[in-house]
Write a structure and sequence with these properties.
The protein is α/β, with parallel strands linked by helices. The chain has one domain: 3-Layer(aba) Sandwich (Rossmann fold), CATH 3.40.50. 41% of the residues lie in helices and 18% in strands. Strand 1, helix 1 and strand 2 form a beta-alpha-beta unit. The relative contact order is 0.19.
Length: 179
């Protein structure tokens, strides 16, 4: 297969937060620019996320928990793609292929590893803006560091704009300017 015949591959990190919706919209919008695109959604969860309550039901096996998580991710992806198609009404959206992946260890490593396995053209992840003024969070930063391809970090538009904090100059700066 020639590289020009190869579909474009986008890996999308999903954590089901409000930011995930913007991440997925950005991935779908980007995918519309290519004639054939595979969008691979990845969700990384712990065992506690998969089975948070302790009722009278016996705890499901790891395979059952991953199966449920896979179904949830596929349903989320199909629903969001349908919503995107309704709002965009673009023919390119029909050529998207959706694939869901669920992993269980470290999010950044799993996202970067999947991107490498798929020879992805782009990774799209979101940031919650919780890590400070202008920095991305630890998972997003690690994805950028480990990624084998470009990374688009999506931030919600609704967040207030951040201004750079003004810090006093260091002593070394003051010494060199006073000469």
């Amino acid at each position: 297969m020639k590289s020009s015949d190869r579909p474009s591959v986008i890996v999308v990190g999903v954590d089901y937060s409000d930011v995930s919706y913007g991440v997925l919209r950005n991935a779908f919008q980007t995918a519309c620019g290519s004639p054939q695109t595979e969008v691979h959604l990845i969700h990384v969860q712990s065992a506690l996320q998969a089975y948070p309550c302790c009722g009278s039901d016996p705890r499901p096996s790891a395979e059952e928990m991953l199966g449920r998580a896979q179904e949830r991710l596929q349903a989320f992806a199909r629903k969001e793609l349908a919503s995107f198609q309704d709002t965009q009404r673009r023919a390119e959206v029909r050529s998207l292929t959706l694939v869901a992946h669920v992993r269980r260890t470290a999010p950044a490593e799993e996202i970067a590893q999947l991107a490498g396995e798929l020879r992805a053209d782009l990774i799209v992840v979101g940031t919650h803006g919780w890590a400070g003024e202008v920095r991305v969070g630890s998972v997003e930063h690690a994805v950028v560091t480990l990624a084998p391809c470009p990374v688009l970090v999506v931030r919600e538009k609704a967040l207030p704009p951040r201004t750079a904090s003004s810090r006093p100059p260091s002593m070394a700066c003051l010494e060199t300017t006073s000469d």
